[in-house]
N-acyl-L-amino acid amidohydrolase (Corynebacterium imitans), 394 residues
Amino acid sequence: MAAAVDAWVTQHHDEVLGWRRHLHSHPELSNEEVETTKFLHDVLVAHGLQPVPFPGTGLYVDIGPETGDRLAFRADIDALKVTEQTGLPFASTVQGISHACGHDVHTTVALALACALADVDLPHGVRIIFQPAEEVMGGGALDVIKWGGLEGVRTIYALHAEPKLRVGQVGVRAGAITSASDVLRLRVEGPGGHTSRPQLTADVVYALGALITQLPALLSRRVDPRTGTVLVFGHVDAGDAPNAIPKAGVLEGTIRTADITTWRGLEDLLTDLIDLVVAPTGCTYHLDYVRGVPPVLNDDAATALAATAGRAVDPHAIVTAPQSSGGEDFSWYLEHVPGAMVRLGAWSGAGEKYDLHQGNLNIDERAIAVGVRFFGSVVEQYFNAQSASPAPGR
């Protein structure tokens, strides 16, 4: 099975690169991936498959028999509001929008896997999910689940391009590989007044300063540091004049944690701490706490299988992936079925190591073939394990 996928990748090398370059040059934002969905549909149909569109954008395709225990792979298809600065001949043709997170690579890997498996006699079913809207708060995974995308799925895998790892390497990690990511928006209010008479009013700027310094400090004393919980503010705005105490100010930031139990109690804990900090200032506040995504918690057995699959492709491929503080909505799938996300090496091995969500991100295209072969090996290892014992689970 893996050998068949490997042969297909070699035979269709130029075609697959053409898919990636088309996707890269025609990025679409979350929930707007209309042309991307149409392109994927047309390629899948041309290779003898019958994709099923989701009610919004995105689609999935089933391959192999209807056995009710499908192995699934997820690819995210949306782009970002980031201006591309790579200078590539197939750079984004859409002003201010680009695939600066590598989703074009994820999508191409999944698309090639689907087309390669179309020519294989599979003992069990495989589902490839092309998910919209990974980059928005909450994530399109919730819609896919609501639309029945996990029905009949027993285990699910995904990969994410990693420009800090060399091409050919696959990073694996059991347990938390990403963090929960929530947004904190605070509006602090007071009567306003003159800076010469602060005793006659409530000082909004002072309250904001107290929150900026004290809230992260208090949080660090209330949460186990081993959970990787961190609060960082990225935006503060208050006032227009140096001698006027404003009536309102705004503070915004993100809070992240790798621990699912901690994540579930963060909103209540932060509300208590904000009360403690703001009360002595005489100001009032309104908290808008936007829940994001839980951490991606890779299943132990599914991660071990991924490591075995990677080594079957290349004995030196598998490395330990670091735990990231970034958020990923693949986590929502793992609330329902076991699975794992891996990091796909995308650095050429020479020159600059780029970063995700940056306009100069330049992924080495050799990573695509590595990703397809890795996924093909996962399919083989999974079905071999399934024939010998129950599939990986929690």
About this structure: The chain has two domains: 1-178+296-388, 180-290. The chain has ten helices and 16 strands. The first helix runs from residue 2 to 11.
